[in-house]
């Protein structure tokens, strides 16, 4: 298939959202041209929790065997107090497959992206082009024209529709709304990430569990990956309104303990953070919530549409939900403009609610005295099953 074919829908961006969208559109019978600006499709970053709401959709694409082969299933999510390690809650995940239609899965990001990429490459409806940055576009007489930039120079192509799956710094979004107030902004938090060889992690923290440690103004998440060979760890630190002017892409464990105010914390947590000397900086940028993602035959998906702080681990999951809704919106041979309006109607309020809830979760996780005491008391009162129930609206 020629990617410049005018009946193809163009997806800009081959992240997890763009790949999932291409697969869902292809399943709906659409031809897709997937353009990625990078010369090679590869995921940077570390671990990814894929909650049942997204896992169910990927299973529906016929990917169950690949998902199971590439993921680890945690037994529970354990919430602990950072200062003394006290267990505040243990959310049991064993029954998730029966309750929500898919288990909780833990992936190395690259493994999930590769399995989606393999499925996209195997589809005759999907043409993938790398080194192809989608630039400006215009709609004229019901036709959509867009400019694609590659190392060989710019090229104008006609498309049936354009989906901006190009991440938080989406240029499709910038061209769509041309509004300075819509610019990305720093969320006030930085994530410091590391992949730790399991043997360097305290034995008690290597179990098949997602661990969440709550501190004042900071929290830590860690879980095992790839059969338990490595542990994905993220320390999220509040730094204030403005991104710290820092050109340190890495931090060592002791200075990270200090930045997170974890100098007096549970010994296991201190060992986990202090033992590693190259924590990688990942400032968390977001954008304002939008009232609409769509104009005519152009729409947005995933982080381009609704970037969120990762405190509910739902950014990629919501992108996958978008992808499914897009595929469904083309049912019955709808035009791109009609399908995108239908897609937005199906998705906008839920994705915005998850965006808002993710921010609220940050305040809950980072509370100090006396709110933290109240939070901890409520958690032990409602128990692990009750905590899981609180999140059931996300996972259903
Ligand atoms: C610390 C952290 C932890 C997280 N943990 C989780 C988790 O556990 N579970 C979860 O569900 N989510 C999690 N998330 C969120 C998740 O990573 C994102 O929501 C998700 O990766 C967004 O995918 P996307 O495809 O929308 O965008 P991206 O992954 O940003 O992909 C965008 C793609 O578009 C390409 N691109 C950009 N501009 C153009 C252009 N003009 N033309 C062509 N291509 C272009 C880029 O090169 C890139 O490949 C986490 C995020 C962070 C920061």
Automatic annotation (TrEMBL):
Cofactors required: FAD
Native source species: Methylocystis bryophila
Keyword Transcription regulation attributed: no
Residues annotated as domain FAD-binding: 8-355
SUPFAM superfamilies assigned to the protein according to its UniProt record, in alphabetical order: FAD-linked reductases, C-terminal domain, FAD/NAD(P)-binding domain
Gene Ontology terms, MF aspect: FAD binding; monooxygenase activity
Protein origin, superkingdom: Bacteria
Protein known as: Salicylate 1-monooxygenase
Lineage per the UniProt record: Bacteria, Pseudomonadati, Pseudomonadota, Alphaproteobacteria, Hyphomicrobiales
């Amino acid at each position: 298939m020629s990617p410049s074919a005018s009946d193809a829908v163009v997806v800009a961006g081959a992240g997890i959202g763009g790949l999932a969208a291409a697969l869902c559109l292809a399943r709906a019978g659409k031809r897709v041209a997937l353009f990625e600006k990078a010369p090679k499709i590869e995921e940077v970053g570390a671990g990814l929790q894929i909650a049942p709401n997204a896992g169910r959709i990927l299973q529906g694409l016929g990917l169950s065997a690949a998902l199971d082969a590439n993921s680890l299933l945690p037994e529970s999510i354990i919430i602990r107090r950072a200062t003394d390690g006290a267990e505040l809650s243990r959310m049991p995940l064993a029954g998730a497959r029966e309750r929500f239609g898919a288990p909780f899965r833990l992936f190395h990001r690259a493994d999930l992206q590769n399995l989606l990429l393999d499925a996209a490459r195997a589809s005759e409806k999907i043409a993938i082009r790398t080194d192809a940055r989608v630039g400006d576009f215009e709609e004229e007489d019901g036709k959509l024209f867009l400019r694609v930039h590659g190392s060989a120079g710019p090229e104008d192509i006609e498309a049936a529709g354009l989906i901006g799956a190009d991440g938080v710094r989406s240029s499709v979004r910038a061209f769509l709304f041309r509004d300075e107030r819509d610019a990305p902004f720093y969320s006030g938090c930085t994530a410091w990430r590391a992949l730790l060889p399991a043997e360097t992690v305290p034995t008690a923290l290597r179990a098949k569990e997602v661990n969440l440690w709550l501190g004042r103004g900071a929290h830590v998440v860690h879980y095992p990956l790839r059969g338990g060979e490595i542990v994905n760890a993220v320390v999220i630190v509040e730094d204030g309104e403005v991104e710290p002017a820092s050109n340190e892409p890495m931090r060592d464990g002791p200075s990270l303990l200090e930045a997170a105010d974890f100098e007096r914390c549970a010994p296991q947590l201190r060992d986990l953070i202090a033992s590693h000397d190259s924590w990688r900086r990942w400032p968390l940028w977001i954008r304002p919530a939008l009232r609409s993602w769509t104009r005519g035959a152009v729409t947005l998906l995933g982080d381009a549409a609704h970037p969120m702080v990762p405190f509910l681990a739902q950014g990629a999951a919501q992108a996958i939900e978008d992808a499914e809704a897009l595929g469904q919106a083309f049912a019955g041979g709808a035009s791109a403009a009609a399908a995108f309006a239908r897609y937005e109607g199906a998705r906008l309020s839920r994705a915005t609610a998850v965006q808002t809830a993710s921010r609220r979760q940050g305040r809950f996780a980072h509370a100090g005295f006396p709110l933290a005491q109240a939070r901890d008391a409520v958690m032990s009162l409602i128990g692990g099953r009750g905590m899981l129930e609180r999140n059931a609206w996300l996972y259903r």
